[in-house]
Design brief:
alpha/beta; Rossmann fold; six-stranded mixed beta sheet; four-stranded antiparallel beta sheet; about 30% strand
Length: about 260
């Protein structure tokens, strides 16, 4: 089993606020892993820390194919084969999807003829042919944007794909379509880490492993039984079984102002 992504003792903070508190994780090539956790547990922060968002102070180790990521610039991490599918994909009016992928392929050293062939093949596989001449993510539905993110990853051929809440804001039909697209992207050469709040997407795909993230740490890893436990009892059931107390600030009723923050947890 070859490890695509190995994370050891990862910490991430914004100022004095520590969000990720010593996280360990191994993702093998060829596997899809799901990280599940409530709001504020640090799931999206994990993606930002790995891709190099400068807002965060990060320590520990994260290796892609055995090579350290955290000492690299954002562009270097991308060239190493790291790609992120965003929770809220950015709209870029005036830049055609096909043009964007050709330019991105050139940055990775892929010849134009080769990237054009990849675009053609993957557009058929992901039903994206009709979107190639349209602006990137412009005037697309939520499901179409998320499917486009996965299509882009498949064209560019990453070694590790981080899919940040790929199912958020989608109706049931769109969740099913996105789940099918994630399964379509499976490859022995890619490790996929999928971040999600909900177990509903797991009805349509089967991750090789599920990790539960609470309070900035992975507290439990397992198979489908973890999703079933969460479906039945929520995250409190995991806390009760493992003897993990809620942070004190979560026990007090929240004021309306507490729901607004500049920190992208």
């Amino acid at each position: 089993m070859t490890i695509a992504l190995k994370i050891e003792d990862l910490h991430a903070s914004i100022g004095a606020i520590e969000i990720i508190k010593g996280l360990d994780l191994e993702l093998p090539f060829g596997e899809v892993h799901a990280i599940m956790g409530p709001n504020g547990s640090g799931k999206s922060t994990l993606c930002h820390a790995l891709t190099g968002n400068p807002v965060y102070e990060v320590s520990g180790s994260a290796k892609l194919g055995g090579k350290e990521l955290l000492d690299k610039e954002i562009s270097e991490r991308a060239l190493m084969g790291l790609i992120q599918g965003f929770q809220y994909p950015t709209e870029v009016p005036g830049v055609r999807l096909a043009e964007f992928l050709i330019e991105a392929g050139a940055e990775r050293g892929i010849e134009r003829s080769a990237i054009e062939e990849r675009i053609r093949v993957e557009a058929e596989r992901f039903t994206m042919t009709d979107f190639l001449d349209r602006s990137l993510n412009d005037d697309l539905s939520g499901g179409e944007k998320k499917r486009s993110e996965i299509f882009q990853a498949a064209v560019l051929g990453p070694r590790v794909a981080l899919l940040d809440e790929i199912d958020s804001g989608l109706d049931i039909d769109a969740v099913k379509q996105v789940a099918e697209a994630v399964e379509e992207m499976r490859s022995p050469e890619i490790g996929t880490l999928m971040i999600t709040h909900y177990s509903r997407i797991l009805r349509y795909l089967t991750p090789d492993r599920i990790h539960v993230m609470l309070d900035g740490r992975i507290v439990e890893s397992g198979g489908a039984e973890l999703a079933e436990e969460l479906e039945d009892g929520g995250y409190d059931a995991i806390r009760d079984r493992l003897g993990i107390e809620k942070p004190a600030e979560e026990e007090a009723p929240k004021k309306p102002s507490d729901f607004f923050t500049d920190i992208p947890f």
